[in-house]
Structure formats: structure tokens, C-alpha cells
Amino acid sequence: MSTSPVARGLVRPHVNASRIIAPITLFAIGALFLILTPVMNPVWFGPADSVTGSITSLDWNDHPTVSYEVAGTSYEMTSSYHSGSLTVGQSFDLVYNPADPTQAGTSGTRVGSFVFLGLGLAAAIACVILVIRLIVKYHSARSLLDHGRRIDAAVVDVTQNQNVHLRQKLLTTVTCEWESRDRVKHSAKSDGFFAASPLALHDLGLTTLPVYVDPREAGSCYVDVSSLTRRGRS
User: Fold this and answer.
1) Collapsing DSSP states into helix, strand and coil, what is residue 141?
2) How many CB atoms neighbour CB 166 within 10 A?
3) Which regions of the chain are under pLDDT 50?
4) DSSP label at residue 114
5) pLDDT at res. 159
6) Cα–Cα distance measured from residue 144 to residue 227, given in angstroms and rounded to the nearest whole number
7) Which of 21, 8, 23, 6 has the alpha carbon at shortest distance from 224?
8) How is residue 72 annotated by DSSP?
9) How far apart are CA 136 and CA 1, in angstroms?
10) Where are the beta strands (DSSP E) in the chain?
11) Distance, first Cα to last Cα, the chain
């Protein structure tokens, strides 16, 4: 029977909190662009015909109201395009949805809509990549907790990022140092966790943290901050 900290339920792998924020943010941006762009501009994502209309008026910011005719029926729309060179009565080229001629706009706006759609797709892909990396990171930490060699390493530094905070707590990392059997010094930084601010080295109330080192791969290690994160929730 395994006696690893994970198997005994004493430790759960802790993944950098800032890495969780990034995919959530990208998912929100991607969803916003992917959902709202077609909803707000449905004419740009299907067949479109062209028509030449006439400017009937200009608002204070030179946005033109354009009158155009499709199959003998007159329509009117206000374009987001603006230019000081536009005049009332001037011809104005539009594209429109043949299934619903009330949906019309300029061809340049159509290109812009596809750009926003592409940005949303890129954000969604980046979100998936980050989530995959998080899963790989989690399983790597779990493997080190299960099979790595435990070292009680000295806590030498505490760093807090003043720009990343959650519920009045700052993103915090702890740096540990230890000496290997061949007298070589090593150091490792923990994944981030949120802690009260300010947090100094003496505030931790401990001088060592367990570090799990992969005996087969130099440099592969995991700093276990579960004792600190449990303290933050209590």
C-alpha cells in the first residue's frame, strides 16, 4: 500500500494561482468575442449582396444615415463609418443580408467583424492550451509527491506580487534552498498562492518546507506549500 502524502490525503498538489486566472480571463474574452460578434453583426456571417445608397443626413460626428433600395423597397440605416469628407446626397456603398435587407453596413465593418471573431477564436485556443498545461503541471506535481524524495529545505525568501490580488490577498511565492548529498546547493520557488499582505519571512512561523525532488531528473522538484494554504483558509 502506498504511503505517499497524496495517498494518505495529507497533501493535494497546488498549482500556481496566477495560471488559473489566465485561462479564466482568456475564456471570458474568447466567449465575449465569439458570441457577441455574430449576434451584434449577423449580416457579416452569411451571404451578402452590395447596393449603392444615398446619404440623407449626417450626425454631429459625421456618421451618415444612408437610404438604399432593395427589390423596390426603401430602407435606411446609420453607419458607424465617419469622415469629414462625407456630404448629404453623396453616394454610399453598402452590403446587406439578402434574407433581411434591414441588416446592412459597410464592407470595411465586415472585415472588422471577422477580425474580432478571429481574436475570440485565438483566445479560446490559448485558453485550451493553458488548461492542458495546468493539467500536465498538476499531474507532474502529484507524481513528485508520490515518488519524489522529500527534503526539508530552508525557507529563504517570500515574494508577493502587488499587482495580482484576490479578496485582499496577494499572489505569494516562497523560495527554498537545500544542499544535495554531493554538497551542491539548490533552490526552488513554489507555485503561487494567495496570502495576506504584507507577509514577511518571519510571518510564516516556520523555517523549512518540504520539497519533493525527482531522483531521476535533476532540477525537477515541487515545493509543498499545502501547510501555508491550509493556514490561509483557517
Assistant:
1) helix
2) 10
3) 1-3, 5-11, 233-234
4) H
5) 86
6) 17
7) 6
8) T
9) 25
10) 49-58, 64-70, 73-78, 91-97, 100-105, 149-166, 169-179, 185-189, 193-196, 208-213, 221-223
11) 31
DSSP for 190-204, please give it: PPPEEEESS--GGGG
Tell me the C-alpha to C-alpha distance, in Å, between residue 217 and each of 84, 148, 175, 220, 221.
Answer: 66, 10, 20, 6, 9
**Phi-psi category of 162—alpha, beta or left, where left has phi over 0 and alpha has psi -120 to 50?**
alpha
Distance of CA 232 to the CA centre of its chain: 25
Global pTM value: 0.53
Name 83's Cβ contacts closer than 8 Å, sequence gap at least 6.
62
Q: Which domains does the chain have, with CATH numbers?
A: 46-105 (2.40.50), 149-234 (no CATH)
- The whole-number pLDDT of residue 87 equals 92
